[in-house]
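Model: You mentioned two targets. I'll fold them one after the other.
Researcher: Yes, keep them separate.
Model: Target one:
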Amino acid sequence: MNPMKFQPVLDEIVATLRPQIAQCGQGEHHGKVASYIPALARVDARQFGIALRTCEGEEAGAGDFETPFSIQSVSKLFTLTLAMQRMGDALWERIGREPSGNPFNSLVQLENEQGKPRNPFINAGAIAVADRLVSQAKASGRGGNGAKDDILALMASLCGEPIAFDDEVAQSEADTGFRNVALANFMKSFGKIDNDVATVLDTYFHQCALRMSCRQLARAAAFLCRDGAHPIDGQPDVTGERQTRRINALMLTCGTYDAAGDVAFSIGLPCKSGVGGGIVAVVPDTLTLCVWSPALDATGNSLLGMKALELFVARTGLSVF
């Protein structure tokens, strides 16, 4: 499909969903924002953005695609990338690669599997990845807080513009993230976390509090549709071709929590979602796409974000299947 033809598709999706956008957050069937994080509970649910970037660097967007939001678990895609850059296959010694089939913050599965997270996209897995990044920062002599600098540097490089943490969201998560504290301490008790739990969680809470727009996220993730080549200038590669395939595979099987099977069935694209309402999707060798709508469904995925991806696939015929 000609890149210049995508803009009308995005405009049509926004127009189609506009009546539902106006109802977001108003009742059981219209989704609700992530109220368990106080800073996210105040976000207006009646917002919707969609943007894409093609392999050739063409960009298109519609709706609130320039509005920054808390990317939350979409960040796990990028911290995984950073850890894979630095550790390669050694990363998988303490983290699995299987779908969880359970909620993203489940403690039960972690106990049954001796503190080894099922995959890097559930909370326990992302906390374990953050632990690896803290260890890498310490090894380079920059201390545990250096991991946060590394994350910001990666995101700024991928976007070609400065990216920042939302400190209010990070603090809000730290104040109320009791289950994440439990997950981290649980893994520590099994010897699966090397660093001080507070330092690891500080890194994790800040990565979730990255503030970005749909346009920025579609651009940042574009290496995943380019066999790992840098989104802006192609050099140096962000990941190798083999690693890129593996990240996309994990997104398809694990990227949308316990809804991954349904998403593969109805959309057919590798996706990574977050409770801030964002979803990044990849069409290998073609484009990356980001949708944002803060109202979530029962699985913690953006209600209208998923509908928008279904509409996009139906209108373009783009799928990995």
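Model: Target two:
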Amino acid sequence: MTNPIYIDQKEILKHYKQPDKHTHKGIQGHALIIGGSYGKIGAISLSSKAALKTGCGLVTVFIPKCGYTILQTAIPEVMVLTDNQEQIISNITFDISPQAIGIGPGLGQAVETQNALYQFLKTNRVPLVVDADALNIISKNKKLLALVQPKTIITPHPKELERLIGKWHSEEEKMSKAVSFSKQYKIIIVMKGAPTRIINGETVYENTTGNAALATAGTGDVLTGMITSLLAQSYEPTSAAILGVYLHGLTADIALPETGYQSFIASDVIANIGKAFLSITE
């Protein structure tokens, strides 16, 4: 294994692009977040709001009908498309042209949803972030991996990673398996943990921000929204992953003196994204 490249402020400045002061929403990127199911609309709410707060000009969600009123009320800035099913996603169709798509938060694993993901992956050519139940569906149906486009970003937590690459018995074995998996399928792995690592073939990045406050429900959904937003803003996939992971961790470092570890929640990540951006160039 090669030594990791540490994701610190010096490394971040190689990737971060200052916004053009003459930009407008039409050229600031359009992200589509696909997910949600009955009882899990909160995941897509967190993900889509994070995408907006990370600088995307436009954000659309594709959700089951049961989430329509929730999203329109909770986040008026987000546009909403719905499946024809009430409680699950069964057929992913849309007539917009997003620059990036995030899929998986709150998605569930219903049989109809598994088929919808299969049909989506067969035709999708838009830069993609795959998370949560979309990863779990792929783990159950490994043939879907052949449909995933090169440079797709996946964001597994340890259990989701294990389902994809198999069990490991040491940190070295885990890294070796992850590198092999990344090379075989030409995908970028955001290996969530303490620390979070990003694997792009033989190249490994290790994040330096974040703390135990992030060990709370929904922070992964927020990260998916952040990385999808950066992809939509024309960041190269590895740069989008690096910047997203760094900012995500930084929000917890910024908030910690006020929240402590115990009372920090996923919404606090979103609330501190602006301060995280400001601190990049300080």
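Researcher: Noted. Anything on target two?
Model: The two ends are 34 Å apart (CA to CA).
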